[in-house]
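fyi for ur records
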Amino acid sequence: MSSRGFGLIALIAVLLGAAPAAAQVAGPHDANGDGRLDVQILYDDSGPFAELGLIYAEMLMNLLGHFPEVDAWAVSTPEYAPGDLLTSEVTFYIGSTYDSALTADFISDFAVTDRPIIWFGYNLWKIGWADWNGFLAEYGFQHWFIAGNDGTGADTEFYRYVQYKGVELPKFAWWNEEAQTFLNDPFLNVLYFDDPDNKVTVLGEVVHSGNGDVQPWIVKSGNLTVVNEMPFTYVHEQDRYLGFADLLHDMVGIDHESSQKALFRLEDVHPKVAPANIKLVRNELKRGHQRPWSIAMIPKYTDPLGYYNDGAPETFTMNAGQARAWRSQINTARRYGADIVLHGLTHQYGAVANPYNGVSGDDYEFWMSPAETPVPEDSYEWFTGRVDEAVELMARRSWTAFGWEVPHYRSSVADYLYTNDRFDTTYHRLVSHIYEVELWGTVYTHNEIWNEPQSVTDWSAANVYVAGDRWGGQFLPYVIEKDIYGNRIIPETLGNIEPAEFALGPQYVRMVDDLLANAEKNLVNRCAFASFFYHPYLMEFPEIQGAGGPEALRALLTGLENMGYTFVAAKDL
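which gave:
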């Protein structure tokens, strides 16, 4: 009865290995006059963590998928083509490897281009220190030194608290008492300023968690914007990543009207879910006024090991006789604003614990855990066969799903790609891998698929190759029209209510107040979403204050609306 999903620690696994006023970062839109915005992404690909450069580039491309007008292409820094800084309308450089080499062509083009450049992380000194006086005079700032952790153990301190639009967005920090390790990314470029002409605009600051020292987080001068760290590490629901996602609009020069939308998804709704719990949830959603919502449907329930059935295996579908009352509640829910998103066929894998108990809703379906590999049968036929069986089970009741949510937010790269053959919308968080696809003699990478997601209309013969075992976990803070797999994504930003009684560890505990705090931080984004999921079994535990029973859900719904969020239908986005 737990979410057991792709949570906070999974989100950060990519790491393996007075606030300023908000300012507009004007970037020329369609300077080439072709109706599109040409964006170049350069990334480091050297050193022991070489893969991270491309993973961060993919995560940036996922965010750029918010903008239908953008054409983006990611290449490694050594592949830089002379003149690209002069012709690309916006260039992002991802400095993920300390002291990584920059080509002479890149350095010379940097000196003469007036096109916007956004610089992440390391290696600004490769340009600035080559001509200290010229760079400093041009931009009014210069790389000074790199700050890291101060102190040790649970007392570790670093530049942690990002201040953006008057809101504090903390970088992740967690002392793992059992492992005696401190999880965080303390890296910050500290800048030197000599700016008598006030060229520099500080777009956000970051405060040291120990001594309170304040340094710039992101600065802009002329055509150069510098992000003094890497906003894709240790991403969590209140992270500075939210501020970066908002600023990205200004970096590409595409603004959007401010909006605050809320999304509710009832999670893991298989045919053994208690009908009374569905009814209680429905009643709360229509209390005061009817709110639209989504049901994450699992059409076939199975407990092959008898974990919840006294050792006796149990399996039945949504169309079985024992699901009659359940179906009645789903039909009523659909009349009261609920739409269906498909959440797997069984949301578990075979007659094994994968990794918990083999029961629908608890285990992975398309991924092996803790092995961290695709299931052995993974193929186009296996994936689409399960999807098609689920669709057919619903079709017998004239139920249809508007989109797909991968169980526990985890599947193979191939499955992400196969999804395009069945659904035009997904509703989940994302894992980015380095991959390429061979199909009918043509090789596709993230670049081709991101730029032309409709170029492949049949994935059945695809041969997918995944490079390395590193990956980047990411939630998307707004609607993404296309990710690196060609999928359209509805955001889920807040997580879910997960009291200590059901959480896998203290780092996963989230109460109503935690989700409300997450939603408040999300308001820094001009396209703000308070999108969360809720497990119906929580209705059975009103004694868990701040998490269980109707009152807790009511407090969450009304709390979001009091912040200015309006509930909308995911299928209409």
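The chain has 14 helices and 31 strands. thats all i got for now
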